[in-house]
Protein: P-type Zn(2+) transporter
Organism: Methylobacterium iners
Amino acid sequence: STPAAIASGLAAGARRGLLVKGGAALEAIGRVRTVAFDKTGTLTAGRPRVTDILPLAPDASERAVLGLAAAVEAGSSHPIARAILERADAEGIPSRPVRDAKAVPGKAVQATVMGWTVAVASPNHARQIAGLDDAADRLVTELEASGKTAVVVVRDGQVLGIVAVRDEPRPDAAAGIAALRAMGVDCVMLTGDNRRTGEAVAGGLGLDVRAELMPEDKLAEIAALKEIGPVAMVGDGINDAPALAAASVGIAMGGGTDAALETADAAILNERVADVAALVALSRATLGNIH
Ligand code: ADP
Ligand code: MG
């Protein structure tokens, strides 16, 4: 297409909150064969709420489980952390000092609190660092089957309790995916969350799920999809900046994180899933391609 067509395409996008970093990126979006979506913060609003607090150790109370989880999550920007901190705040639980806080991306956060080593971990990671008995396992399965994400609070290698959160799909997610498929674009969900939760969310949206992926697994999925054709990755940048960079086209959902904006080729400021389809349509119109 001509430079004038590209400039007017970029401007038309910008007016609708679709920021594209230049003509090459705009052209690439229309040629995409597959769109890979991150789940949390992309297909869902990324504003999970705490739905369940389940003490499991004999000496644990709801307040103790929530309080220790909140202390460890205080330094994390993950949506699960925000949900836990919000709930602790609502219950008037004072914040506690922690030391040596660190994140294990895709798995857990951990810190030293009141002399204990406390982790808030995915069930799979909790199985490795503490073990889950049958009762805990059953609870996790039930929570996940209803579309919730369960995290396990582990204190000095012992399971203290479970906190569950639920993150609703964005209101236009199903329509946005249907629009992409109508344009001949395949859609998949790449998530670090567990398979049951991923499928419960995806079931209503009509797309393929690849779950329980570590950040490096997301890269491998992108590489495999690229064998078939150009791939766009849509993510909010929390844990998925490398995947945004590895895709043929990286699309940041929202103003998002600085990491996402830096690595992405385009950004969707209004956080609508349907805007991914709008980007593809805009690109194809600019290219003068009718597919
Ligand atoms: P997604 O791909 O859905 O955005 P992530 O890769 O960000 O998910 O996280 C995957 C899983 O790792 C979460 O479902 C959770 O079990 C665990 N996890 C990651 N960060 C945290 C955190 N700050 N607190 C608790 N659990 C976490
Ligand atoms: Mg995410």
Notes: The pocket of adenosine-5'-diphosphate (ligand 1) is lined by residues 38-40, 73, 76, 78, 80-81, 106-109, 120, 122, 149, 151, 191-193, 238-239 (CB under 6 Å). The mean pLDDT is 93. The domain at 49-166 is CATH 3.40.1110.10 (Calcium-transporting ATPase, cytoplasmic domain N). The CA atoms of residues 83 and 211 lie 21 Å apart.
